[in-house]
Amino acid sequence: MTGTKHKIKIWFKFPPRPGWPDDTEGLWATPLSGQTAQVESAPFMQEGVAPGDVVRFETDEWGRHWALERVQASGRCVVRVLPDAAGPLGASVEAVNAQFEDFALASWAYSEELPLITFDVPADADFRAIRERLDAGAAGGWWQYEVACADEHWWAA
Prior knowledge:
The protein is α+β, with helices and mostly antiparallel strands. The protein starts with 7 loop residues before the first strand and ends with a helix. The protein has three helices and nine strands. The longest helix has 13 residues, at 127-139.
């Protein structure tokens, strides 16, 4: 595997949230230097970081890499959607993903028990149309959502 960069897990610690299973989350990243790495995965729990972002980290005595700060933003956004089990789509991850197919967003589901979906929204996506779809689904009782990471371009759309 000459020429390929290995992945490491960067750990983030955040204030505990009621109903969430953990107060840490590990995200895959590609090392760029001894203390920086580019995030490769979208977070389910961590706020303020998206795939493509560069973070500075430190390594503890057990070899675990802990994020210290984001040093470069990628322009990508992370949106989390939790389907309303009593709503028109039920708790179906597939049904929620189908609502966003035309945007070609990468997404991941947390688990069958917690059908939380994390969407990785590219920097060149149609932010306005995605926000309108999110708002319409929330108003229709299909889901609840939160924006976990976004910049001024998302909010201005």
